[in-house]
Sequence to fold (182 residues):
Amino acid sequence: MAPRVSISASSRARPPALLESHITVGAALEIDLVTRNADRSAITIGDALHTYFEVSDARRVTIRGLEGCPYLDKMDGGKRKQQAGPVTIGAETDRIYLDSGADCLIDDPGLKRSIRIRKRGSRSTVVWNPWIEKSVKMGDFGENGYLNMLCVESANAADDVVTIAPGGEHHLWARYEIEALN
Fold:
């Protein structure tokens, strides 16, 4: 039986949304974030499973599965761009990939592994690395810690938010697995 965590919060007397998280830990990690609309009218939500993955060196990993996807580049004023080839990191990166339903693979030759991210109920993917200046200001990365982390989030963000009908629910589900690097 997977552990269950229920969360609800609101500043109103009747919360418009109830959140529940189901987490399964085993050979793979599965997370199912359930948002239930407890309101009398439709609600629109953005949600994401914020993940920090340990990598050997962010400059040497590639992210496959986002090839050809449009993205919003928050480091370039939110300009819409198109991904050509696998994603690589060489500077501060903060992007929202839209219409990205395929599995993502973080290929890490230094650790000789791939991390496969499968998802459902997610139409966008956030790729983030704070790089040098921002990681120093954050204070919890340590010296060069930004090189050993990469955030690849299953999300519904920007153009890909979700509308939930009254009494309805939305599941944001992801499964994370380690595979040998091909």
